[in-house]
């Protein structure tokens, strides 16, 4: 979805030309008995748990404040924050690691069928 529908709707062709494709390693947290997912070649992607903890300085920085649209649709908590997906997998394939609405990495994960977990798209740009 991020490398297809989202990317084509969010960027024009001029802007898309500046997006740098990257190969992402796709491991699990905590390490499980599952073989890691194959690396993926992405232009737009979700951070891994390790990257989220590295790039955000604190739990407060990881809180995802919802948009007015998401708030009207009741996709958020009372404090207008929401959980958001990471690309790391969990101990079972029905869950994926996410960041909870208070900014903590939820290594036990969120059910992949949850409809109210947000996405924070990531990309690298040529400047």
Overall pLDDT score: 87
Strand arrangement in the largest pleated sheet: 6-7-8
Based on DSSP secondary structure assignment, what is the total number of beta strands? 9
- Our measurement of the CA-to-CA distance between the termini, rounded to an integer number of angstroms, reads 25 Å
Number of helices: 5
Give the DSSP E fraction (strand runs of 2 or more residues): 25-35%
Tell me the Rg in angstroms. Answer: 15 Å
Any descriptors?
about 130 residues, alpha+beta, two-stranded antiparallel sheet, 9 strands, about 25% helix
Question: Would you kindly provide a brief summary of this structure?
Answer:
The chain has helices at residues 2-10, 13-16, 49-55, 59-62, 68-72; strands at residues 19-20, 22-26, 37-42, 64-65, 81-82, 84-89, 95-99, 105-111, 124-125. The chain has 127 residues and is of the alpha+beta class.
């Amino acid at each position: 979805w991020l490398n297809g529908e989202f990317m084509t709707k969010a960027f024009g062709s001029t802007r898309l030309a500046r997006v740098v494709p990257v190969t992402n390693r796709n491991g699990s947290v905590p390490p499980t008995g599952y073989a890691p997912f194959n690396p993926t070649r992405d232009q737009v992607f979700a951070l891994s748990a390790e990257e989220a903890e590295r790039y955000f300085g604190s739990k407060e920085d990881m809180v995802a404040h919802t948009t007015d649209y998401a708030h009207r649709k009741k996709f958020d908590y009372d404090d207008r924050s929401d959980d958001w997906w990471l690309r790391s997998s969990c101990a079972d394939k029905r869950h994926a690691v996410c960041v909870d609405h208070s900014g903590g990495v939820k290594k036990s994960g969120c059910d992949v069928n949850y409809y109210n977990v947000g996405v924070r798209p990531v990309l690298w740009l040529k400047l």
